[in-house]
Amino acid sequence: MEKLLLGYIISSFSLDGTIKVLSKTNMSSKRYVKGNKVYLADKNENIIKELTVSSFRNAGEIDFVKFDEILTKEEADSYKSYSLLINKTNDLENGYYYFSDLEKCNVISNGKVIGKVIKVEEFPAQITLRVKSNEGNEFFIPFIKEFIKNVSLENQEIDVVLWEGML
């Protein structure tokens, strides 16, 4: 089953093994529900062990997570720089997408493929698609309704409206 990145372990937070995580998900409160299973992975994304969420709280980009299996500060510190992963599910509401799904899509404007999404960027103003054009140049398209006409994950296509000067 495909895994999604939740974040990277920065350090321990307390003596009971609570860890401090640099979050890479905008759905922390949904992912770290008590009893949920997540996976601890090393720097090569090899899964080390399954963890069970015991408690969670968020402070901006930082998640504080306690797992049943990590009981001490020393054990938590030993996982510094490891990543936390979760199984990808189809639990998103209509109109919401996993970044990894969008990164596989061709970008179409006026019926013509103009490039491919290579990365989804989160900027303060909005989520933005980084697109590599057929000519090899990169450009950005804000992922908002003014620019996105349709997303078809089945066809791996995103139909967009381009404004003059975007390319």
Structural features, described:
It contains 3 helices and 12 strands; from the N terminus they run E-E-H-E-E-E-H-E-H-E-E-E-E-E-E. The protein has 167 residues and is mainly beta. The model has no long low-confidence stretch (mean pLDDT 91). It folds into 2 domains: 3-87, Elongation Factor Tu (Ef-tu), domain 3 (Beta Barrel); 99-160, Roll (SH3 type barrels). The radius of gyration is 19 Å and the shape is elongated. The two termini are 37 Å apart. The strands form 2 sheets. It has a 6-stranded antiparallel beta barrel. A 6-stranded mixed beta sheet has the order 10-9-8-7-12-11.
Molecular shape = elongated
CATH-scheme architecture of the largest domain: Beta Barrel
Approximately how much beta-strand content do the residues carry?
over 45%
Q: What is the count of DSSP helices, taking H or I runs of 4+ residues? A: 3
Cα end-to-end separation:
37 Å
Element order: H for helix, E for strand: EEHEEEHEHEEEEEE
In short:
Helix content is 8%, strand content 48%. It is mainly β.
Helix and strand topology:
Blueprint: E1 3-12, E2 19-23, H1 28-31, E3 37-41, E4 47-59, E5 62-67, H2 73-77, E6 83-87, H3 99-102, E7 106-109, E8 112-122, E9 127-133, E10 138-142, E11 148-152, E12 157-160
Parallel strand pairs: 7-12
Antiparallel strand pairs: 1-2, 1-6, 2-5, 3-4, 3-6, 4-5, 7-8, 8-9, 9-10, 11-12
